[in-house]
Design brief:
The complex is a heterodimer of chains A (about 260) and B (about 325). Chain A contains nine helices and ten strands. Chain A is an alpha/beta fold and about 260 residues long. In chain A, strands 6-7-8-3-9-10 form a six-stranded mixed β-sheet, with helices on both faces. The N and C termini of chain A lie far apart (about 45 Å). Chain B is an all-alpha fold. Chain B has a two-stranded antiparallel ribbon. The longest helix of chain B is centred in the last third of the chain and has 34 residues. The chains are: A alpha/beta (about 260), B mainly alpha (about 325). Chains A and B meet through α2, β6, α3 and α5 of A and α9 and α10 of B.
């Protein structure tokens, strides 16, 4: 479905998302100072680090919500740092879930899910509705189809937001601190949903503070501090065998 | 310094740009001002604050004016209540079959609101355009008409417009008369347009940026985002200030009397004239006029406040 763009000559043995030497400033403040990472198809990676270290900015750059000043981000061969970038094409490949859910409050849960496939992808309404019901089931929200976001708990809203992104059949999912605004008891239901996705082979990039989740689900962990990647590795080496003193200090505070 | 007060002061200065106060006695007042300012900023306008006790004040004024006039009425002339009774139909409807007087105030207010809303909505959308010249141009037009005195705008329009438009020069055998009240409609439409433009802009920018971002990340175009996601949410927010502006407009329409439009004030003066310009009747006739406007505007203004509260809970 997403192979339309002619410029893409990407093959699955290449990284699905390739970030190279990315620099990003807000005015005088340099937030990203040369960040690189490769994410293969089906991988789930977690980006962790102290607040203000640029992790959210980084994943917002991946779907061009923020532009970058220098470097390159390739998503399935599509160069994000290209003035002529077809943003719509990029955003059909990349789904994003936000900390504040950002559901459309004037639409019911199922309408939230159906809107973009119908109006952006111009898909058949019947077919989209069928898929939306499947997604609702997948995020375990049967019976909430016709509820408005205001009538749902934070965790339920966030799961609708995940389903809404999935309805666009993206190849990569970005999760920007999606559990940070939730009550502790609803964090788990959202994490389970994401874990299901990762286990099904969805390529996931998460910015998170959930260390338990990162250790259990991630294939790879990146630790950022002050705009650079300080250290990265498999969860085991990262949590048990951190080398950099900044990582050690962060872990000692958080674990 | 206790931090609680510090936080409040910071919040205040972020709204007003005013320095934080160190006088605790001012804080409750400051909090109230802040709440009002937040609403006004969101709606891009100030808001009528009608309260139930205003009914009493208008009634007291009316009765006092009547009692005073009664006392001052010379022997053999009709009293104030009788005079009001006699002239009320004329002030309300004008001569039979003509829909003038107060009903013309309403007609002017309906049409001015209609044109002002249509033009203001378009202008407001231009104010949030991505194109800089469009944004700046519409901003200028909005600010120009928003900050001009209504009376001066009305004068300008009424003196600028011809009393008839002759289409003969372009080959159509038609002369369209432009009565004064139509000119007044145009004159009132302009400030309404500018204020509605601000209401629209205020509603659009008051939505959390997350709505734009999530729409963007779902690959909606800007136009789709605007029409399918942003504006439907704005409509609810715009209704209370829109009603509010209608009330302000309805109360402003008597200004047209200065230009001789045959609306309620003009006819009140004519009625007073016909009663021999008796000075004791002037206050009671104007109190009557006030009461009519109040009776019309009060329920609408209350309704807007109620909607405001209702919508505030749901959003």
């Amino acid at each position: 479905m997403n192979q339309a763009a002619a410029s893409v000559n990407w093959t699955p043995d290449q990284p699905m998302v390739s970030v190279k030497d990315v620099h990003k400033s807000f005015g005088d403040l340099e937030v990203l100072k040369g960040v690189s990472m490769d994410i293969m198809k089906g991988e789930c990676i977690c980006i962790i680090g102290p607040s203000g270290s640029g992790k959210s900015t980084l994943i917002r750059c991946v779907n061009a919500l923020n532009d970058i000043q220098q470097g390159s981000i390739l998503v399935e061969g599509l160069e994000v740092n290209d003035p002529g970038l077809d943003k719509l094409e990029l955003r059909k490949k990349v789904g994003m879930v936000f900390q504040q859910y950002n559901l459309f409050p004037h639409k019911t849960a199922i309408q939230n899910i159906m809107m973009a496939p119908i109006h952006v992808l111009k898909q058949d309404e019947k077919e989209v509705e069928e898929r939306a019901r499947m997604l609702i089931k997948k995020v375990r929200l049967e019976g909430k189809e016709d509820s408005y976001p205001g009538e749902l708990s934070g965790g339920q809203q966030q799961r609708v937001a995940i389903a809404r992104s999935l309805a666009m059949t993206p190849d990569v999912m970005l999760f920007d601190e999606v559990t940070s605004a939730l009550d502790p008891e609803t964090v788990k239901e959202v994490l389970v949903t994401i874990q299901d996705l990762a286990e099904e082979g969805m390529t996931c990039i998460l910015v998170t503070h959930e260390m338990g989740f990162a250790r259990e689900v991630a294939n790879h962990i990146y630790f950022t501090d002050r705009g650079i990647i300080v250290e990265h590795g498999s969860p085991k080496t990262f949590f048990d065998d951190a080398k950099d003193p900044r990582t050690k200090e962060f872990l000692s505070q958080i674990l | 310094m206790d931090t609680g007060k510090g936080m409040l002061s910071n919040a205040l200065s972020s709204v007003h740009g005013a320095p934080p106060t160190d006088m605790p006695v001012l804080l409750p007042m400051a909090a109230q001002v802040r709440r009002g300012a937040l609403i006004e900023r969101r709606e891009g306008t100030y808001r009528l604050d009608v309260q139930r006790h205003h009914i009493v004040w208008v009634a007291v004024l009316f009765v006092l004016a009547g009692v005073a006039a009664q006392a001052a009425t010379p022997e053999g002339l009709i009293g104030p209540w009788e005079a009001i009774w006699k002239w009320a139909p004329f002030i309300l409807w004008g001569p039979e079959g003509e829909l003038k007087g107060f009903s013309l105030n309403l007609i002017i207010s309906f049409f001015a609101m209609l044109f002002g809303t249509v033009a203001g909505a378009a202008l407001g959308l231009m104010q949030v355009s991505l194109l800089l010249p469009v944004r700046q141009g519409s901003w200028f037009v909005t600010q120009f008409f928003r900050n001009s005195p209504w009376l001066v705008l009305l004068f300008t329009i009424m003196l600028l417009f011809p009393f008839e438009i002759n289409l003969n020069p372009i080959g159509i055998d038609l002369i369209i008369p432009v009565p004064d009240w139509m000119k007044a409609v145009i004159g009132f439409s302009l400030p309404v347009m500018a204020n509605i433009s601000e209401v629209v802009r205020g509603a659009v920018i008051s939505l959390p940026s997350g709505q734009w971002e999530s729409a963007e990340s779902l690959a909606f175009t800007r136009r789709q985002t605007m029409w399918m996601i942003i504006l439907p949410q704005c409509v609810k927010r715009m209704i209370p200030p829109w009603i509010n502006w209608y009330c302000i407009l309805a109360m402003a329409t008597p200004i047209a009397s200065i230009m001789g439009v045959e609306e309620s004030v003009t006819f009140t003066n004519q009625a007073l004239n016909a009663e021999g310009d008796r000075p004791e009747l002037i206050p009671i006739f104007y109190a009557f006029l006030l009461a009519i406007h109040f009776i019309y505007t009060y329920p609408i203004a209350r309704w807007s406040i109620r909607l405001e509260k209702q919508f505030a809970v749901k959003i």
